[in-house]
Amino acid sequence: MVSANRLNNQIEIFDNDTQLVEALAQRFEELAAAAIKERGRFIVSLSGGSTPKIFYERLAEKPYAAKIAWDKVLFFLGDERCVAHDHPDSNFGMIKRALFSKVPIPDGNIFPTVNQDKDPDQAARQYEETLRRAFKCGDDEVPNFDLILLGLGPDGHTASLFPETKALKEFKKLYVANFIPKFDGNRLTMTYPLIDAGRQIYFIVTGDTKASILKDVLEKPDRQLPSQVVQPRSGNLGWLLDRAAVRLLKQ
Fold first, then answer.
1. Domain residue spans of the chain
2. At what angle do helices 50-59 and 17-39 cross, to 10 degrees?
């Protein structure tokens, strides 16, 4: 593993996704213990994607399944496709199969979106209300997630903040339905104010296919891609990468 710093981003490079996932699982356990000790609970925003799926499956195995105080961990979604949760494309469905169904997490600690396949705008409003109730914060406050996991799309999007979409300019709402022209449909997503309030934010990027966009994101700040706009107000921002993803970066 190699650590570096570029454009105020803490970058860590692992030989492969297995090493990356193991390191992230260890940090999840450490962050959970620290948050629970200090604030009584650990509140997390999860991402979809293939590498996060491997990470969730790892958390469901020894030693993490037995060591983490699951009854004090709260899980939210960073974004969701507007399909039913039993649909193959659902982020929640994937996470439930990989993690929620395998460890003793109380149902009340898991917060899926509701009716996202029927009324995306209403679902987004309801999810923001759910967020505020869980964090016990008012309309003029922004909750602080203890951990936010983010991915990186081939067009530079993160969560469901895609280039040239309306949600990029939303700075009042915390969670919105965002119309994605290339998919001709909506996705639900957290907005920048909510992301930037996170205490620890990790981008997880692996694989050769992400090498080109990762180079643009980390070395061409003038492009103003959605993932480049993420800037924590007081928390930490880290990039967990494997060697395949960083093959085009300047050394």
1. 2-242
2. 60
225 near 217, Cβ under 8 Å?
A: yes
CATH number for the segment(s) 2-242: 3.40.50.1360
Query: How many CB atoms lie under 10 A from the CB of residue 162?
Result: 23
Question: pLDDT (tens digit, 9 = 90+) per residue, 131-167?
Answer: 999 999 999 999 999 999 999 999 999 999 999 999 9
